[in-house]
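Re: the 235-residue chain
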Amino acid sequence: MSSEPKPPSFRAILFGIVVTIIAVVFMCALGDVLKVVGSPFLFIPGALGLIQTIGPEDVRTVAMSDSPTIVRVRQPGLYAVYVDEVDLLTITDALINSHGAPWLKVKAVDTGESIGVAFIERGLRVYDTPYAKGRPIMSFAVARPGAYELTYPCRGTDLSIVPDYTTGHETLLTLIYLVQISLLVGVVVVVWRRRHHTERAAAKALQDAAIARADAFWKKHADQQRAPQDKRDKQ
């Protein structure tokens, strides 16, 4: 007589729901997790002056609820625009694939000069700054500090403007990560092998001691067995 399967308990159902929620949150935040995990690898190269790094004070957040917006740029150079809204990312990818024009317009306030905006097609990388949400999708270069007008479609989200120290240095950054990861893996392997060797040596010492005790026991036992016979032989 076959027994019917038991229905899942409340605890099992609750555990399944919690695991599902955690998995969904992790997948949604995977990009931010990747950037946070990768950011420590930039500390040493930045301290050595091999690369320029970004701090939280370098990130300018702009609310997209109003357009246009005036932004003051303190330093000339290349800037990247980060966005984390799914719709905007999807629209941007569609424009890239169709060779369309960027939806962001940049203009110098004092001269009225239009600043060229280019798409960043590489997607998210581990060396992108964790201080700006989302991934870099566009970049523009300014020749001098000053006020610049940003025009974009109004949205209930933010975009971030960050100094772009990665464009043109992708190969160097990738090499920096590979070297550090290789060194880290090498250290882990050396420590593991040393620990494994120590554990094997300790286990072998215990085994040798056990064998020595067993040999001594059986030798003593054999001597005790031979003692009466030797005594009789002497008589």
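The first strand starts at residue 60 and ends at 63.
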